[in-house]
C-alpha cells in the first residue's frame, strides 16, 4: 500500500499544474478578447493573429525579462491603426507586451482592399490525390480574427497545408499560397520575424498572469 500515497500525490500535483496552465491560457485569451473589444468600442479595425504550435515552448529558461513559472507556448499579435499610427502588440500565455509603432507595410490598408477575398476564400487541406488528404499532429495552427467596417470574421489554417515536397506533393500548394489571407499572413510574419530578431518586443512584466 505504500506506493499509493506517492501516486496520489503525483496525481494531485499534476492536476494542479494542469489547472494552473489552463488558467494562464484562459487569462491570455481573455486579454486578447479585452483588447479587441476595446478597439471595437472605438470603432477601430484590427487584425489579430494567434499562432499555436504543438509541443513548442518559446521560453526555454527563466530570466529577469520573463514571467516567473511560465513557459510561453503560443503567441498572439494584434495590428491596428489609431491616431494615424500603425501599431502591433504581442501577447502570449504569460503576459502582455508593450505596443510598437510600425512604419512599413500597412495591413489595415490591405484589409480594406481585399476584404471580400479575405472573407470568401478558404484554405484547402494538404491534398495528395482526388480522394486522399494528409494531416500531421505537430503542425502550427494559425487563427486570424479580423474586424473591418463593423464586420468580424475568423480564418484558421494549418501551416502544413501551405507546404509541399518532392516526396509528398500537395495539390493545393499553389492555390493555397495565392490566397489573400496567405499573402497577408506572409507579410505579417515577415514584420513579426524582423521585430523578434531585433528583440523589439518588450514584455510588460506588470501583466504577468501568475501575478493576477
Topology overview:
Layout lengths: L3 H38 L4 E8 L20 E9 L2 E8 L3 E2 L2 E3 L4 H14 L6 E3 L2 E2 L6 E9 L2 E8 L14 H5 L2 H18 L5 E2 L8
Throw out a few tags for this protein.
35% helix; globular; alpha+beta; 212 residues; Lipoprotein; signal; 25% strand; 4 helices; six-stranded antiparallel beta sheet; 10 strands
Structure in words:
Strand 8 and strand 9 (151-158) form a beta hairpin. The strands form three sheets. Strands 5-3-2-1-8-9 form a six-stranded antiparallel sheet, sandwiched between helices. A two-stranded antiparallel sheet has the order 4-10. A two-stranded antiparallel sheet has the order 6-7. It is globular. It is of the alpha+beta class and 212 residues long. Helix content is 35%, strand content 25%. It has one domain (4-211). Helix 2 (107-120) packs antiparallel against helix 4. The protein has helices at 4-41, 107-120, 173-177, 180-197, and strands at 46-53, 74-82, 85-92, 96-97, 100-102, 127-129, 132-133, 140-148, 151-158, 203-204. It starts with a helix and ends in an 8-residue tail after the last strand. The protein contains four helices and ten strands, in the order αβββββαββββααβ. It comes from Bizionia arctica. This is Lipoprotein. Keywords: Signal. Residues 1-19 form the signal peptide.
